[in-house]
Design a protein that fits this description.
Blueprint (H helix, E strand, L loop, with lengths): L1 H52 L2 E6 L5 E3 L1 H7 L20 H17 L3 E6 L6 E8 L10 E7 L1 H30 L4 E4 L5 E4 L1 H7 L4 H7 L8 H10 L3 E9 L2 E11 L5 E7 L1 H23 L3 E5 L5 E4 L1 H6 L4 H4 L5 H10 L9 H9 L9 E6 L5 E8 L5 E7 L1 H23 L3 E5 L5 E4 L1 H7 L3 H5 L4 H9 L9 H11 L5 E6 L5 E8 L5 E7 L1 H51 L7 H31 L6 E4 H16 L5 E6 L5 E4 L1 H17 L6 E8 L3 E8 L6 H5 L21 H11 L3 E6 L5 E8 L1
Parallel strand pairs: 22-24
Antiparallel strand pairs: 1-2, 1-5, 3-4, 4-5, 6-7, 6-10, 8-9, 9-10, 11-12, 11-15, 13-14, 14-15, 16-17, 16-20, 18-19, 19-20, 21-23, 24-25, 25-27, 26-27
Length: 776
């Protein structure tokens, strides 16, 4: 019983173990399959997502012709329902266009039968969409043999890009052809070097420059345009930067200066070209010399000049600029900026006073961007300085400033304006009537007096009439209308002949005017008229009075002469009886009686001299002169002997000095002798005791000269001026022995009667000198 139980138990255990193992295996297999299913599902979802996001849409075509397509592809093909076969893709069902449908069907058929892949473009009917169909035999895992898998790509954008690229290619090709033609036609040598710096291409200008014959031969022979040409090209290739160098070259037998450019290209080659700058260098050198000469010239100008570059820095200023704005050369050497220069001018008080200086400065800064026309301003500086400022923008972007000191011109203009106003006011308010006539005889200017004198209408004068029309209008206002022609004659004489002439004219109303036409520097003529009516009346009155005075003078002279003759008879009697009394014919006189008789004789002598002087005056005024030769040496000695009796009592030294050139003159000997005697008497009478008088006589071929000088007390200027005035002698008498002071007037009258001159020079304390000159 026990043994069976154990066996049964073992079998049961084995069976149970088998069952547990089978259950474990089944559990493990189920779990593995579930895990594989989960992985397959995940892969399927991922592949489906990739398929949905793919830019291509798939279509399957089975061996029996059935087709399968996604809804999006159906929309691309323009179908209303899914196609069941290739026949559903023909144009009759709204699918692919006819040409594309036939080619697509033929390509699918070739892929089914021969496994030939294809790539073809199709276009959906009624749509602008272009599709690229890429097909091949489908994998066996996908479907039964004979199936085809077709991928459709939307090639609409790619086709547009293709067309764009095609157009771009054509455009670039045309540009390349044009560039090639341009390079070939360029007048400058151009070339291309390979990365090893050997020549690969040259243009015609390069060939002509090196005398290469043609381009191929030039490249084959490696003819270089300049010496050492690869140095710049090597640097350009190694650095990737364009290189420029000015090098000499011989072209056409002439030495020229070339500017060579080496430009690195993307392919490693080097493009080069050369520009002939020989003329440019010569022009630049000439411009430089011109600039130096111009600056030297600007330094000699009186106006201040400053030049600023395009960056507004000061590049040049002349000496007048530095002097005008008080700027030091050391400060200007740092090339100050335009704003700093204005600020320095302001500090030196050489700018106009403005309220908003920053705004004012900004406006002047805009001069750099102004048009090419010059800008002109007038600056009124503190202290009365006036500047004319001219700002000229330069073509290269700079600015040229010219400062002209016009203070003197402004002052002169102001003075001229003031002078013109004063002249106009003076011209219009002159007492004279004035009219200015042009060279053609037209009246240009006139003053108020001119119009008032003639009584012309202002409308008539505003027409600027010619002088002949003016004369016709004025003729009716004259006492003698024919005298109006005088106006035209005077104006023509002043304008044409440039002569000054004058005349007088009488008006019908009794007025008298004096005319004068004066030539002016500008070719015009000035006609002046002055009213002489009052002067004419005064002149006539004076003439009448003069006639009366001359008649009265003649009566007076005759009366004085008669009285002188009448006085001489009783004077002779008095002298005779006095001499008899003094001689004792009437008995012996007492001492007092003798003195009285001598006094009477002295007075008689003086009265006799006075009567003789009066007779001399009356006879010389009447012109009673004798004419004959007069020996001046004899005359001098006789006159000195006549005066000697009055000189000796006063111990006066009377000296006579006659030169050999004295000679003789023609005249009245007695009158000339008396003239010299009167001069000597006047000199002796005015001297104190112990004085000296000199009588000097000389002459030349035309005139004789008599000089009487003394060392007496002299006269003051007022007395000397009236010494020859016979009516002032009572005030200037120098002594009692002067015959009542008529000596000098009588001497002058005698000398002037002979056509001579007499002059007196005297100073207080220096004596007196009288000079007489007589014509031969």
């Amino acid at each position: 019983m026990t043994g069976i139980s154990t066996l049964d138990a073992v079998l049961a255990g084995v069976m149970l173990a088998l069952l547990v193992g089978a259950a474990g295996w089944a559990l493990y297999s189920g779990l593995a399959q579930r895990s594989a299913a989960r992985a397959a599902r995940d892969d399927n979802g991922r592949l489906w997502a990739m398929l949905s996001a793919s830019p291509a849409l798939a279509m399957t075509v089975r061996g029996d012709g059935r087709t399968e397509a996604s809804g999006k592809l159906i929309d691309w093909l323009g179908l209303s329902e899914p196609p069941r076969s290739l026949g559903d893709l023909d144009p009759g069902h709204g699918g692919i266009e006819s040409d594309s449908a036939a080619a697509f069907t033929q390509a699918v058929t070739a892929a089914q039968r021969g496994g030939r892949p294809f790539r073809i473009t199709v276009r959906a009917r009624g749509s602008q969409r272009l599709l690229l169909a890429v097909g091949d035999r489908a994998p066996a895992a996908l479907m039964a043999p004979g199936g085809v898998l077709v991928w459709f790509f939307d090639a609409t954008e790619m086709q547009g890009e293709v067309h764009r690229l095609t157009d771009e290619r054509d455009r670039l090709h045309g540009a390349f052809e044009a560039l090639t033609g341009l390079i070939e036609a360029a007048p400058m040598p151009m070339w291309y070097r390979m990365p090893d710096l050997s020549l690969a291409m040259v243009n015609t200008a390069y060939v002509r420059a090196v005398d290469g014959g043609d381009a191929d031969r030039t490249v084959d022979r490696g003819l270089e345009l300049i010496e050492g040409p690869v140095a710049g090209a090597a640097i350009a290739r190694d650095t990737g930067q364009p290189q420029v160098a000015a090098v000499p070259a011989t072209i056409g037998g002439q030495r020229r200066m070339l500017r060579v450019h080496d430009v690195p290209l993307g392919d490693g080659g080097i493009a080069g070209y050369a520009i002939d700058i020989d003329d440019l260098e010569q022009a630049r050198s000439g411009i430089k010399r011109f600039g130096v000469a111009q600056r030297a010239l600007l330094d000699r100008l009186s106006a201040g000049v400053a030049q600023f570059a395009a960056d507004r820095t000061l590049t040049f200023c002349n000496q007048p600029f530095r002097r005008l704005f008080a700027m030091r050369q050391e400060w200007l050497a740092d090339r100050p900026e335009f704003d700093r220069v204005l600020e320095r001018m302001r500090e030196a008080k050489r700018l106009p006073e403005v309220r908003d200086f920053p705004g004012w400065k900004a406006e002047r800064r805009d001069w750099f961007r102004a048009a090419e026309n010059a800008i002109e301003e007038n600056w009124h500086l503190p202290g009365g300085t006036h500047l004319r400022v001219v700002a000229q923008p330069l073509p290269e972007g700079g600015l040229l400033l010219i400062f002209e000191d016009r203070t003197e011109q402004v002052q002169l203009a102001s003075a001229r304006d003031t002078l013109l106003r004063v002249r106009t006011a003076t011209f219009d308010n002159l007492f004279e009537a004035l009219g200015v006539f042009a060279a053609d005889g037209r009246l240009q200017l006139w003053n108020t007096k001119f119009r008032a004198v003639w009584g012309f209408d202002i409308e008539f004068l505003n027409q600027h009439p010619r002088v002949d029309a003016l004369a016709r209008e004025a003729a009716g206002r004259l006492a003698n209308p024919a005298r109006a022609a005088l106006i035209g004659e005077l104006v023509r004489s002043a304008t044409v002949e440039r002569l000054q002439r004058g005349g007088r004219v009488a008006f019908a109303d009794g007025r008298h005017f004096e005319f004068a036409a004066v030539p002016l520097p500008d070719g015009n003529a000035l006609l002046t008229m002055i009213d002489i009516s009052d002067s004419r009346r005064i002149e006539q009155a004076l003439r009448d009075r003069n006639d009366a005075l001359e008649a009265a003078d003649r009566v007076k002279t005759a009366f004085v002469a008669n009285m002188s003759y009448e006085l001489r008879t009783p004077l002779t009697s008095i002298q005779g009886f006095a001499e008899m009394l003094h001689g004792g014919f009437a008995g012996e006189l007492s001492a007092s009686g003798t003195d009285y008789a001598e006094a009477i004789l002295t007075s008689v002598d003086r009265l006799s001299v006075l009567i003789d002087d009066v007779l001399d005056l009356t006879q010389s005024e009447a012109g009673v002169l004798e004419r004959g030769p007069v020996d001046l040496e004899r005359l001098a000695h006789e006159a000195a002997e006549a005066v000697l009796p009055i000189a000796q009592p006063k111990r006066i030294d009377l000296a006579v000095e006659v030169q050999g050139s004295a000679g003789a003159v023609t005249g009245d000997p007695q009158r000339l002798k008396k003239a010299v005697e009167h001069l000597l008497r006047h000199a002796v009478g005015g001297l104190p005791e112990g004085g000296r008088v000199l009588l000097h006589v000389d002459g030349d071929a035309k005139r004789a000269r008599i000089v009487v000088s003394d060392d007496g007390p002299g006269m003051d200027a007022d007395t000397a001026a009236r010494a020859f005035d016979r009516f002032a002698q009572g005030q200037i008498a120098r002594g009692s022995d002067r015959a009542l002071g008529l000596g000098l007037p009588i001497a002058r009258q005698f000398v002037e009667a002979h056509g001579g001159t007499i002059a007196l020079v005297s100073e207080p304390g220096a004596g007196t000198l009288v000079t007489v000159e007589l014509p031969r």
